[in-house]
Inverse folding.
């Protein structure tokens, strides 16, 4: 299974004119614009599980998702974002001979882009990364990839 980078950050997201709920549509629009500027092929942002937002990107013919939601368990203005393959070969696929796909290059590329996006904008603070879990107060502050 591919390691999934997670990043916690703090931000006060302004209210979006088009979408009231879930919160964070303004952040999704900003990230969508950054992906466009960087030349990353992607679908328009969309509602993710009625609690956040996601953007499906295609890099080197592989689909990778960026998804995020508010994370008030850690801070009132906290957010948690993850970058993961859209589809991976599962248990039964492997039993029937499908080979796992290496997404490490694509996930690393998107992680670096998201890190730049968060660090270049004063709206975001307290940026903490980790692999396969929720970054805690003592967690990694730089990119885990």
């Amino acid at each position: 299974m591919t390691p999934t980078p997670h990043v916690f950050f703090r931000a006060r997201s302004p209210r979006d004119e088009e979408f009231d709920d879930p919160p964070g549509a303004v952040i999704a629009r900003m990230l969508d614009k950054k992906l466009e500027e960087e030349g990353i092929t992607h679908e328009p942002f969309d509602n993710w599980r009625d609690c956040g937002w996601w953007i499906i990107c295609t890099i080197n013919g592989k689909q990778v998702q960026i998804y995020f939601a508010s994370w008030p368990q850690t801070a009132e203005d906290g957010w948690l974002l993850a970058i993961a393959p859209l589809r991976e070969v599962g248990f039964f696929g492997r039993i029937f001979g499908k080979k796992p796909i290496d997404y490490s290059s694509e996930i690393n590329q998107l992680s670096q882009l998201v890190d730049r996006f968060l660090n270049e904008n004063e709206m975001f603070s307290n940026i903490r990364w980790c692999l396969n879990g929720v970054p805690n107060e003592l967690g990694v502050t730089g990119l885990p990839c």
In short: The chain has one domain: 5-131. The longest strand covers residues 62-70. DSSP finds three helices and seven strands in the chain.
